[in-house]
Each structure stands twice: as C-alpha cells, then as structure tokens.
C-alpha cells in the first residue's frame, strides 16, 4: 500500500498557507478537489473490500482474483 501521508501533509500545509494569506479562490478549489478525491478514494476502497469479501463468501476464486488484482492496481 502506498503511503501518501507526506504528500497529503504538504498539500494541507499549502492550502492552509493560501487560506491564511487571503481568500484565494484557487485554495478553495484545491480544498474542494481534495475533499472530492478523498471521498471517491474512500468509496472505491470500501466497494472493493465489500466485493472481495462477497467473492470469498461465495468461494468464487476467479472473481476474488480479478477483484484483488483490480484493487491492487487501484492502490497504485
């Protein structure tokens, strides 16, 4: 699993700086985009985990392998 903690911290620091500096529309857009990206990532992660669990419960090895491969590519 990739660790994006450093990148996320740098982006958060940049946004905080821009917001403190002035009401910068670019900073507001950046914050909105970060929120959307994080929401989408959380949704996709949850969806993959649920589908993988379902494949395990049904003992569907082909589907499990397919979903696991997709999930690992998604994580990068």
TrEMBL record:
SMART domains: IDEAL. Transmembrane segments: none annotated. This is IDEAL domain-containing protein. It holds the Pfam family IDEAL. Residues 35-71 form the IDEAL domain. Coiled coil: none annotated.
């Amino acid at each position: 699993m990739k660790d994006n903690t450093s990148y996320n911290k740098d982006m958060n620091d940049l946004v905080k700086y821009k917001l403190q500096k002035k009401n910068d529309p670019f900073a507001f857009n950046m914050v909105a985009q970060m929120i959307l990206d994080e929401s989408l990532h959380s949704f996709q992660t949850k969806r993959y985990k649920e589908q993988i669990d379902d494949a395990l419960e049904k003992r569907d090895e082909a589907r499990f392998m397919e979903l696991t491969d997709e999930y690992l590519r998604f994580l990068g």
